[in-house]
Amino acid sequence: MPFLEAKQLSIGYDKPLVTGIDFSCDRGELIALVGRNGEGKTTLFKSLAGLLPVHAGKVILADKPLDQWSIRERARQLALVFTERHSLGGFDVRSYVALGRHPYRKAFSKLDQHDNQIIDQSIEATGLTHLQDRSLDRLSDGERQRAALARALAQETPIIMLDEPTAFLDYPGKIEVLNYLKKLSKEHQKLIIFSTHELPLVASCVDALLYISNGQAERISGDEKEIERVLEERFGGLRVSK
Ligand code: ADP
């Protein structure tokens, strides 16, 4: 049984934008969602996370339709990370990461020892321990991106979806984030789906692509060579011609 499935899904706002989406994916997979600007990548994330009603079809999470999960249960299964260039208010890193514990806490309850342990681990895993008391406003883009990841880790979900996690990062920063996502998916058996325009970087790290174009979406699996070939073909080359 696949962990996450889309069955004949149609997504969009006033009218359907991408239709007939059929794919399945599993824990332990790292998947890049690729497509030109405006094709519907963010819309797909919102629909898979249950934040946007679908026009038709179903999202199935662990063999149960997404709309049958309560919001709280869903938040324990799936974390969605949007990339904010400018940070939210005056949160320090630790308080921001602590927001990830929300689905596990009773209203107005304090963080307990277990919550604090998970927060510590998430901050440590993303290499932010020395910055945990610093305000998000005073982080570099790469550090802020890692804080967003730490927050998703603290949410302890089997699925993490990230909208353009490598945007705004310098080249080594992009590679660092991709390496980290790969490690997380394999060592923690998480299903990680991230959207990206970093096409030359993805072939060597992902298990599959979700490719959106012209109102259609498909899953493309294969080894590094095959994924590179498909990207070259669909995007008309990955290198500037001489
Ligand atoms: P991508 O992430 O692939 O760049 P999006 O999913 O953000 O694409 O957007 C897909 C299309 O949906 C675009 O044409 C965009 O203008 C439109 N769109 C995005 N957000 C909204 C919204 N809140 N209401 C109506 N249309 C929207």
The CATH superfamily name of the largest domain is: P-loop containing nucleotide triphosphate hydrolases
How much helicity do the residues have? Answer: 25-40%
- Beta-strand segment tally: 10
Reported for the largest beta sheet, the result is:
6 strands, mixed
Brief write-up:
The chain has helices at 41-48, 71-75, 93-98, 113-125, 141-154, 171-187, 199-202, 224-235, and strands spanning 4-12, 16-25, 30-34, 56-61, 64-65, 78-82, 159-163, 191-195, 208-213, 216-221. The protein is α/β, with parallel strands linked by helices and 242 residues long. Adenosine-5'-diphosphate (ADP) binds next to helix 1.
Fold and architecture overview:
By secondary structure, the chain is α/β, with parallel strands linked by helices. The chain has two domains: 1-77 and 157-242, P-loop containing nucleotide triphosphate hydrolases (Rossmann fold, 3-Layer(aba) Sandwich); 89-155, no CATH class. Helices cover 33% and strands 24% of the residues. The strands form two sheets. The protein has a six-stranded mixed β-sheet with strand order 6-7-8-3-9-10, sandwiched between helices. Strands 2-1-4-5 form a four-stranded antiparallel β-sheet, covered by helices on one side. The longest helix has 17 residues, at 171-187. The model has no long low-confidence stretch (mean pLDDT 93). The structure holds adenosine-5'-diphosphate (ADP). The site of adenosine-5'-diphosphate (ADP) has 10 residues, from helix 1.
Main attributes?
242 residues; alpha/beta; Rossmann fold; 2 domains; four-stranded antiparallel beta sheet; globular; binds adenosine-5'-diphosphate
